[in-house]
Design goal:
19 strands
């Protein structure tokens, strides 16, 4: 890491540390200081690091992003992105909680929905067990500048019928936001969480988000991450799930925006009979770069995991997929599979895909695979022969490729929202909405 970058983030930390929520809490102050010390020593990752071999973050490093959050949130109309109905919603503008744009249902039994900043002021003892320091480079920065985010706790045996929507909107140029989401599900609890990132500024912004999910025995969490920030934004995300016995975790990662996006998604089976499904769809063009790194740690027996990732690339865009399934010695009778399919729409686009298995048990069923290809000429000819023009034919085939992942989303409103974003980037919008 360059000395100017070290100096910049050190200065930003000195400016911000006394304004961060919970700055008077000794345990949090110590955690932040330790994280900043690690970051100062280790810095940003480089392409010499195996995990970052295909993703260069030098553009983030050389930009002097401000890390001190604005005092006042801007007034904007965020209603076009609201999930309508009875969904609870926390909205954050430039990393700060915006109560006027949020919808928290007071008195709703079985669930706590609040901002971490508020919780650290009102009930810090409730947050302390769940705010954990991670040691990856960007997670160090996140912990050092941890300012706000969502805290969701679902009581045991609670089945939330409506999704909880976390909406993050970036509006200020050259601002870095380091948000932390904590989601805790009690035994046999069930919930759907939608985490959405938007960018209204056409200038560069930097989102560095960490989401940690703690699943109690027999619980079921479905997490939908929708990233559609501006084409000049930088988005780094860490999602970690910790699964207790017989819990079920489903992740949907939808990456549609940003100049550079990196998603690290992992789950650890800390009890038998756990299940995890990781789904992903990324659609990039221009000079966009998207990177998904996944890891499922079968640390206990009788676990099941599935990974389905699909990418659509155009122009001179680039995608990276690295999926690692680790089966530890205790992970007997594991059933795991992963597949990564990629569709290249141009000669200038590129994919680096590395599905991986690391197995230390002897009674397992594991598989992995990857494909990279272009639109099928025979299918195009079939559609053209029936009077469909070339652009619309290509659009139909691209949409069909993405549809399998879209169909996995848990409710129609989210699926329709993603489809509309996808259609806007198709070669032809002619009649395609009527064909859905």
């Amino acid at each position: 890491m360059s000395l100017p970058a070290i100096s910049h983030y050190g200065t930003e930390y000195t400016r911000a540390e006394h304004t961060l929520p919970g700055e008077g809490l000794p345990w949090l102050k110590r955690m932040r200081a330790d994280a900043m010390a690690r970051f100062t020593e280790e810095g940003f990752p480089t392409t010499k690091d195996e995990a970052w071999k295909y993703t260069n973050v030098a553009e983030i490093e050389k930009r002097p992003f401000q890390c001190m959050l604005p005092v006042n949130s801007k007034t904007i109309d965020a209603s076009p992105w609201f999930l309508h109905g009875k969904s609870q919603r926390l909205t954050f503008i430039d990393g700060r909680y915006a109560p006027a744009l949020s919808q928290v249902i007071v008195g709703l039994g079985g669930v706590t929905v609040t901002s971490i900043a508020d919780l650290l002021v009102r009930k810090p003892q409730r947050a302390e067990p769940w705010i954990k320091a991670l040691t990856t480079p960007f997670a160090n920065l996140n912990t050092a500048f941890l300012g706000d985010g969502a805290f969701i706790e679902i009581d045991e045996d609670t089945d939330l019928k409506e999704p909880i929507h976390l909406l993050y909107i970036s509006t200020t140029a050259n601002l870095a936001t380091h948000t932390r989401n904590i989601i805790v599900a009690g035994a046999k609890a069930q919930a759907i969480i939608v985490e959405q990132y938007l960018g209204l500024s056409e200038d560069a912004t930097f989102t560095n988000a960490v989401t940690q999910l703690f699943l109690g025995p027999g619980s079921c969490l479905e997490h939908c991450k929708l990233q559609q920030e501006s084409q000049r934004a930088f988005h780094i995300a860490t999602i970690e799930a910790y699964q207790s016995e017989a819990s079920t975790f489903t992740s949907h990662s939808l990456s549609l925006g940003a100049a550079l996006a990196r998603h690290d998604i992992s789950s650890r089976f800390d009890g038998p009979h756990c299940s995890a499904t990781l789904n992903g769809l990324y659609v990039v063009g221009g000079q966009q770069h998207v990177d998904h790194h996944t890891q499922i740690d079968h640390a206990s027996p009788h676990g099941t995991s599935r990974e389905f990732y699909r990418g659509i690339l155009d122009d001179h865009s680039r995608a990276v997929f690295s999926g690692r399934v680790m089966v530890q010695k205790a992970g007997q009778q594991t059933d795991a599979s992963q597949i990564n399919n990629n569709l290249l729409l141009s000669a200038g686009s590129e994919v680096d895909t590395r599905p991986q298995l690391e197995i230390y048990a002897d009674d397992v069923k594991c598989s992995h695979g990857a494909t990279i290809g272009q639109l099928d000429d025979n299918m195009l000819f079939y559609l053209r022969a029936r009077g469909i023009d070339e652009d619309l034919a290509r659009t139909m085939l691209i949409h069909a490729f993405a549809r399998e992942l879209l169909n996995r989303l848990p409710f129609d409103m989210l699926r329709e929202q993603v489809e509309m974003v996808l259609i806007e980037r198709m070669p032809s919008k002619k009649h395609i909405k009527d064909l859905l």
